[in-house]
Amino acid sequence: MILNKYSRTLTENEDQPGSQAMLFGAGLTETTIRYPQVGIASAGFAGNPCNMHLNDLAGEIARSMEPEQLVGLTFHTIGVSDSISMGTSGMRYSLPSRDLIADCIETMVSAQWYDGLVAVMGCDKNMPGSIIAMGRLNRPALMVYGGSSLSGQHNGRNISILSSFEAYGAKVAGLIDESEMRAIIRHACPGAGACGGMYTANTMSSSIEALGLSLPYSSSYPATSLEKRQECAQVGKAMKKLLELDLKPRDIVTQRSLENALVGVMALGGSTNAVLHYLAMARAFGLRLELADFQRISDQVPLIADLRPSGKYLMEDVHVSGGTPAILKILLDEGLLHGDCLTVTGQTLRQNLEGIPEWNNDRNILVPFDRPLKKSGHIQILYGNLAPEGSVAKITGKEGEFFRGPARVFDKEAVAIEAIKAGRVRAGEVVVIRYEGPKGGPGMPEMLKATSALMGAGLGKEVAVITDGRFSGGTHGFVVGHITPEAVDGGLIGLLEDGDMISIDAVDNRLDVVLTDDEIARRKQGWKPPETQYDSGILYKYSRLVSSAAEGCVTDGRRENRVVTASGL
What we know:
- The structure is a single chain.
- The protein has helices at residues 8-11, 17-25, 54-65, 82-85, 94-112, 126-137, 161-172, 178-187, 200-211, 226-233, 235-245, 249-252, 255-268, 273-284, 291-300, 315-321, 323-333, 349-353, 413-421, 448-456, 517-526, 537-545; strands at residues 37-42, 71-76, 116-121, 141-145, 152-154, 157-159, 379-382, 390-394, 402-411, 430-434, 464-467, 478-484, 501-505, 510-513.
- It contains 22 helices and 14 strands.
- α3 (54-65) links the parallel β1 (37-42) and β2 (71-76).
- With 569 residues, the protein is an alpha/beta fold.
- Residues 559-569 have low confidence and may be disordered.
- The strands form three sheets. An eight-stranded mixed beta sheet has the order 7-8-12-11-10-9-13-14. It has a four-stranded parallel beta sheet with strand order 2-1-3-4, sandwiched between helices.
């Protein structure tokens, strides 16, 4: 079998002397120039704990190629730290970075004629960006997750990045002093690795493992662990097998494996960002996935994991209790996963899980299926006159399932934060943050700074937040995001006024405002879209290209997709 079927276009054609000269200049020899070439895409950069170690892991992976007679060639793509940019205009670049990462990887692998791809990713948008690229390229590929950081320590308790955001709210509310806040900030992130709770990074890594595009345990090995290094040392062998089998991402990612991924998201209490990312990822693979599919899976899968942000435990606790595969084995035995789906090991999910050590629940991370934390999934798709095209709520059950209150309306998150700091948000209100959608933001920034400020101020259970923007995986409380149509597109959220009565019903899945048709029509007549903030650069391009949140905020145009009907579990 020909394993270098792409790279040989350059290396075995005598009419490509320049290509070969450059490759010799890069260090290849008369022998290695005929080896299959594997692009190793690293999202490493020094300024973020999630990504700061990825280049070292990429080096380990490149070395693992040599014994397999493969050439590993590392290249780099970008990353954006959500936690660093959160609450600033820099956050507008976060979601666009997903598509930019996908474009970068697709460009490099295609232009350089690599035979395979290993993506070494560490943070929220890195991972879906790399998977989108795999779907477009459809060459043998797998993703290595950089792993989670260990927890920070403060006053004898485990803390994480979310603790720093909530400390700010507590300080503003006078619940802690400046020195206490600074101590929490100083110790929240002890070193390399992604944020340790079931925030977006771990939501995506664990669900991508369930999807079949990562090696077993990749999502639960800590960033600085020996096991993570050992995983990287095995990647060359795994890639050789993928090339020999000619096993490609579109052989692995099917409608059924997408359902496996979503089951993982629901069971573990994952981030609402998974909705945006899986809509976009499915599209890249030519598969149809809709908001209704998320609700269907959520209706069938109980929330069983007591993981942060709404729970107690971190991914390091999952690791010592048996890791992600042990949880997948539980879900498989419960009949919630399709065990016949192929994975990057060349085996099915069921075969991967045979003989693995059993889950150790001494820490009570998982609850029994007959006594779940919530009988259905925490992600709920809400419709209504405020969201005729859909919205996404994160309802774990701890905050209740119904909220009704008067609107407190803010154009942009920064204005809302100032009001929270000044004590102008009252218990019982529904905080409305608008003009933060994919077009209106632009970039659909996360509202973690606002929701954390509310939590820290003791209002987390006393107010609701709705927005056409999105929420961090670290957000918890009664929150509804991804409201479509967004305000800048003339959605009803853009017509709301202070005092309008809003109801959020996570049982009947409704999001409504009490307004007559005549009043809505009157307000529409007086509404004008705000002036655009950007007239050049990536955010300008993004606002012109991006689809709605209900379609995954994709920027790849309106091409036809291969239609596959969603199947039930």
